[in-house]
């Protein structure tokens, strides 16, 4: 079985160390090791991780060689602006919109995030996908690790 490509944002990396998200995050990373998922990480995540605690940075450094690293591009920035113009999130949360845009323009079928306020929220998902269609992109599935891990 071929691994499913999933874009992960910064919350997924830190989630491994957060008591609320730790159990599901660990299970998710076990399934990454089992090749159920192939990680797509952006240079935006790389920038955001700079402010993280040492143990989170160390974990990111362990993940990076096995992941595909994607760059912030002009089409992604343009799509982020469309999300902001549609008021899906405010300018204060522009990086959250950029995560969705990066996954979308790079044809990732799934985003996995613990960000329930700006990314993994039923209203936001519908709005992101509406703008994707208007801008000529495919719809994207957005889930938390709880929704993608296998429980067997």
Defining key terms:
single chain, about 150 residues, alpha/beta, Rossmann fold, 5-stranded parallel sheet, 5 strands, about 50% helix, about 15% strand
Give a description of the structure.
The protein has 152 residues and is of the alpha/beta class. Helices cover 49% and strands 13% of the residues. It is built from eight helices and five strands; from the N terminus they run βααβααβααβαβα. The longest helix is centred in the C-terminal third of the chain and has 13 residues, at 122-134. The model has no long low-confidence stretch (mean pLDDT 96).
CATH superfamily: 5'-nuclease
CATH topology: Rossmann fold
- Determine the structural class based on helices, strands and strand pairing: alpha/beta
Order of helices and strands: EHHEHHEHHEHEH
Q: How many discrete domains? A: 1
Number of strands: 5
Number of helices: 8
Would you identify the CATH architecture? 3-Layer(aba) Sandwich
Radius of gyration: 15 Å
Uncertain spans, ≥5 residues at pLDDT below 50?
A: none
In this structure, how is the largest beta sheet organized? 5 strands, parallel
Oligomer: single chain
User: How far from one another are the termini?
Assistant: 16 Å
Report helical residue fraction: 40-55%
Strand line-up in the sheet with most strands: 3-2-1-4-5
Overall morphology: globular
Work out the strand percent: 5-15%
CATH class: Alpha Beta
Question: Could you report the average pLDDT, rounded to the nearest whole number?
Answer: 96
């Amino acid at each position: 079985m071929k691994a499913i490509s999933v874009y992960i944002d910064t919350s997924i990396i830190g989630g491994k160390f957060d008591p609320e998200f730790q159990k599901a995050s660990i299970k998710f990373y076990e399934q990454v090791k089992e090749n159920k998922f192939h990680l797509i990480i952006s240079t935006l995540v790389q920038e955001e991780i700079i402010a993280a605690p040492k143990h989170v940075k160390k974990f990111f450094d362990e993940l990076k060689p096995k992941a595909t690293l994607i760059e912030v591009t002009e089409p992604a920035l343009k799509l982020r602006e469309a999300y902001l113009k549609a008021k899906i999130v405010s300018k204060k949360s522009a990086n959250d919109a950029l995560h969705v845009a990066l996954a979308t323009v790079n044809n990732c079928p799934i985003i996995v995030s613990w960000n329930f306020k700006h990314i993994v929220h039923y209203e936001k998902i519908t709005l992101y996908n509406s703008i994707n269609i208007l801008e000529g992109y495919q719809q994207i599935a957005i889930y938390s690790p709880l929704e993608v891990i296998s429980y067997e």
